[in-house]
Amino acid sequence: MRRCFCAFALFLATSACSFAQAQLLPDRFASWQPAQRPPLVLWPRNPANASQPTPGAEKLLAESGVVRVEEHYYQKSNDELAVRTWKLKDASGAFEVYTSLLKPGMLPARVGQVAAFDKDGVVMLSGNLVISSTANASRDDLSALVRAVGAASGKAPLPPIPNYLPMLGRVPGSERYALGPVAFRSAAADLGRTEFAALSDEVGFASGAEAMLALYQTRSQEAALLLIEYPTPQLAEQHLRHLETALSAAAKQAGTTIERKGSLLSLVLKPTSAAYGEALRNAVNYETQVTWNEPTHKITDPPWLSIVGKIIVFTLMFMGLAMALGVAFGGVRVLAKIFFPGKVFDRPDQMDVLQLGLSSKRIDSRDFY
């Protein structure tokens, strides 16, 4: 019994030490102090905890690359605050979890990298951490909480695909980001488009595809916009054919269409009118860019005064050189004739003169000098 008690005490001490080392949330922040209820570790799964992710949420967390999930409780005066945090392997997985926690109607909040809130609570994203809190904390308190966990969350940028969504008419809190089929099917169900969940097998997540969905609504029009981005335009064209084949006849009759622009596919799901679907697609903020990664040289024309000056200088240099060579050649010849007459140049035995013979006197070549 003594050995068992010692082993159990050692196990508790080791567990407490490992929890403290891997703890994501601080014990206290701003004016919030630890509550009476102890913190919970929901992931890795612990059967001893009553609060566990549902099977659907568990699959989505596994797809997103979850590392750890904690729930902490804080108190201030008579108020209690429940905070839950998810740690993911990277920022893309964190953004997938973040959007899965959004509810239509949630408004943007200026906390962390991106956040949204409603009357029930707030959801925040900071690097590879997702934090949700009940609604009885101020923005300053939440900012202090984000700063407290900022050192462990990193500052990785968000995926670019959310920036492609049009702003006009978008229902706040309806944005859903998917890196895999589980999140895609969950997003289709959340947005009331369950009939399109079957497209998850044709999207091509295994090829590196990323999907973004959102609801759009005006006074008389409504539609859901699905954007799918691929690593290359070739993959986008290939999966465009697969998705066109996978779309049911009923979906096509309801106005669902697909178009490709570069590496991005855009699908307007069941618009109330074809004109609204076309206007929504045209409002997508996506432009293709071609980058040249070979070494380049920037060529600039020099001033025209510099060009004219160089032309004059080099012309004078050429004229001076020609004159010097001419004088040198002629001077050497004259000096040779003076000091060595008939021995170097114009030797009589090597000169021939043609004459007409009008006179009987023979022409002597030396008479020319």
User: Which strand-content bin applies to the residues?
Assistant: 15-25%
Number of strands: 13
Average per-residue pLDDT, rounded, comes to 85
Written as H for each helix and E for each strand, in order along the chain, the element string is: HEEHEEHEEEEHEHHEEHHEEHH
Number of domains: 3
Structure overview:
- The protein is built from ten helices and 13 strands.
- With 369 residues, the protein is of the alpha+beta class.
- It folds into three domains: 25-156, no CATH class; 159-289, no CATH class; 304-368.
- A hairpin with a 2-residue loop joins strand 3 and strand 4.
- The radius of gyration is 42 Å and the shape is elongated.
- The protein starts with a helix and ends in a 30-residue tail after the last helix.
- The model is unreliable at 4-21 (pLDDT under 50).
Please provide a brief summary of the model.
The protein has 369 residues and is α+β, with helices and mostly antiparallel strands.
SSE map:
Layout: H1 2-22, E1 33-34, E2 40-43, H2 55-64, E3 66-76, E4 79-88, H3 91-100, E5 107-109, E6 114-117, E7 121-126, E8 129-134, H4 139-153, E9 176-178, H5 181-190, H6 200-203, E10 210-217, E11 222-229, H7 233-246, H8 249-253, E12 257-261, E13 264-269, H9 274-282, H10 304-339
Helix pairs in contact: 2-3
